[in-house]
Amino acid sequence: QVQLVESGGGLVQPGGSLRLSCAASSSSGSRFSINTIDWSRQTPGKQRELVATWATGGTTNYPDSVKGRFTISRGAAANSVYLEMNSLKPEGTAVYYCHAKVALYGDYGLRDFWGQGTQVTVSS
Question: What angle do CA 108, 110, 111 make, to 5 degrees?
Answer without folding.
Answer: 115
